Every structure is written in C-alpha cells, then in structure tokens.
Amino acid sequence: EAPVGARLMAAHPLEAAMAVAAARIEVALDGRLSPARSPDVPARLLAAMRHAMLAGGKRLRPFLVIESARLFGAEARALGAALAVECLHGFSLVHDDLPAMDDDDMRRGRPTVHKAFDEATAILAGDALQALAFELLGETEAHPDPGVRSELTLALARASGGGGMCGGQQLDLEAETAGDGPLKPLDGIGRIQRMKTGAIIRFSAEAGAIVGRAGARERAALVAYGEALGLAFQIADDLLDVEGDAAVVGKATAKDAEAGKATFVSLLGVSGARARLTEATGAAVAALEPFGARAAMLAELAAFNARRRS
C-alpha cells in the first residue's frame, strides 16, 4: 500500500504541493530570522518579525513563484525570490493591520503584531521585512546571474511601491470616505485591486519567468495569468468578508461594509461578485494555454482560490 503522503499527493495534488512548499518556506524563514543569522537585529524587533512571518498561512505567493519557475525547470533557483515576495507580503500585512490602516486585532488566528508588541515596533518590523525582501533578491543565492537579480529587484520594487501595492492601499483608504466620488465605480475598484493586491500576485507569477529566463511570449502569458489571478483573489477576499467564518478566516469579517469600503460585493452584490470571480478564474486558466499540461498545477491554483474559505 502506498504511504500516506503518496496517497495524499495522488488524491489532492495541489493541497499536497502547497503544504510541501509552505513547510519549505517556513523552515527557510525560521532560519533566516534566527538570532544566529540576525545577530545585529535588536531582540524585540526580531521577535516581532518572527511573529509576523512564522504564523503559518497558505504561502500562496511564494508557491506561485516556485510553480511558475517549475515551468522552465528553474524551481531549484526560485527560493530566494519566493522568500522575498513572502517577506514583502508580510510587511504589507503588518502595516495593513495598524490602527491607522485597517485596525485589525487578529491575523491568522492570533494577535496582530501591534497588539502582541506595540505600534512603533510593528511599524519597524514591517519596515525591516520590506528591507529584507530586497536584501534577499540582492544575494547570490537568489540567482547566480546578477542581471536576473537586478530584474527581480526592479520588478518587485515597481509592484510594491507608489504605482503598485502602496499606491493601491492609499486609494483604498480614500475609497472609505469617497462616498459617491470617483473611486466608487467598478473601474475605481478595479484600479485599487490591480495595485493593492494584484501587483504582487502578478509579480509572483512573473518572477518564475524571470528566474527561468523565459521567452517574451511565455513571460507575457504568466503576467496575464497573474493579473487574472490577482483579480480573482481580491474578489474571493471580498466574498469572504461577507460570507466567511472569522474562526476559519483567522481575522475579523464584515469589516468592509462597516468601514464603507468600495468592494466588488458592495457594487455587484454577492451573486454578481461570484459571477465576476468565475470570469476572472476562467481568464487565468485560459492564459496558461501556451504551457499545456505543464501548467496543470497553476490552473488548479486558480480553481482553489475560487473555492477557498480562508
């Protein structure tokens, strides 16, 4: 009889692959954020960074980096970029949870960093994680080719800065008080999504192509996939805020409506948002056509996002 792990992989290949990748990322982050590896980092700051990064989670973005690189046989060289994007994502969550932003007390079923420590330490922990992301991309372990490292660094900077994630967060904050202003229509919500959530997911898909030195057509296909997946991911999040169980989601729900946030659900309703989620998921899968069966895991990832409960 096949071992339990083999049976799990056969029955649920995506879930098994994600679990393996998440465990690999957890071990790598634990080592990177250990006192031995970070002797100059003040103990309280390091503890806050560890609290932010070693709380489990789906590790969807680093998984996406690794699986995209696998299309080109480059998954062994994708760990540095995978760790970098997860540290960048961790920075965004620490800051997003702050009272000045979304003011969340719980993240992944435990106190957020500013609750477990204090606001100032949380801000510094987020800053340090952002810096660590680019440090990881600059190291030779990220890729032996300095040109590839430079391209990864530039792409992540653009995805996370004022024209990407940070800019999207600013628009999201403005949308809470915009009333019927210019940010409420669907195209405004789409712009927020593309910047705040979609840019980093798009980078995660494109990073695999950069690491694997993909051709222009294949890289464009992964960018299109990442854009569609980013849209689908945000719509799924909006639906979870309305329909999700806080105990399963791991954070407070029903906060978007309370804050008056512009979301796909607030404009389209639940059924309309679900229809848009189905459309975006289909677009993500269609973008993978150039890769054929090699991209089966990425196609299943899009389907998994559409049915996720956390």
Short description:
Helices cover 70% and strands 1% of the residues.
Describe, in plain words, how this protein is organized in 3D:
This protein has 310 residues and is mainly α. It has helices at residues 4-11, 13-32, 43-53, 60-70, 79-96, 113-116, 119-138, 146-160, 165-175, 186-211, 216-243, 246-249, 255-259, 264-287, 296-307; strands at 106-107, 110-111. Strands 1-2 form a two-stranded antiparallel sheet. Strand 1 and strand 2 (110-111) form a beta hairpin. Helix 4 (60-70) packs antiparallel against helix 5 and helix 10 (186-211) packs across helix 11 (216-243). The chain is globular, with a radius of gyration of 19 Å. Mean pLDDT is 90; it is low at 4-9.
Assign a percent range to the helix content: over 70%
**Sheet with most strands: strand arrangement:** 1-2
The global form is globular
Helix/strand order, N-terminal first = HHHHHEEHHHHHHHHHH
Radius of gyration: 19 Å
Terminal residue distance: 33 Å
Can you count the beta strands? 2
What would the average pLDDT be, to the nearest integer?
Answer: 90
Largest sheet: 2 strands, antiparallel
Task: Please give the count of helices.
Answer: 15
Structural class comes to: mainly alpha
Q: Which residue ranges are poorly predicted, with pLDDT under 50 across at least 5 consecutive positions?
A: 4-9
Which strand-content bin applies to the residues?
under 5%
